[in-house]
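Extended Data, panel c. Modelled sequence:
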Amino acid sequence: MIRFSLTCDQAHDFDAWFSSGADFDRQAEAGFVSCPHCGSSVVSKRLMAPSVATARSREAHQQLAMDVQRGEVIAKLRDMVKTIKENAEDVGERFPEEARKIHYGEADQRGLIGKASPEEARALIDEGIEIAPLPVLPDDVN
């Protein structure tokens, strides 16, 4: 659909929507286009600036799309973290010790969450113990 700025022979300005320029021409010739102010069917198109997508408008549309996608990803991550926390034992600061016990068969296999310093985490990984940090999501730090 195309919006045309129109004017009648009585100098009334108005807008109307048409499927194409040819559609406007056909309807105007048949007398189907009339001024909403005075009813005149002598109507012509006014000079219009084309609607051009600027870099700024493209950026705004892209940002909106990214915000929607970002929200969906964050919601999925939030669900994942919730499931992990519901199905794991929180051992707090004892995480490195408990992870080693499980890895070396000194404790039963189970899901763990807890805290480890960067050095402790590197040491666990170097020992072949599989660990992964839980993501910190927006609103989790407020």
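The longest strand covers residues 2-8. This feature is highlighted in the accompanying rendering.
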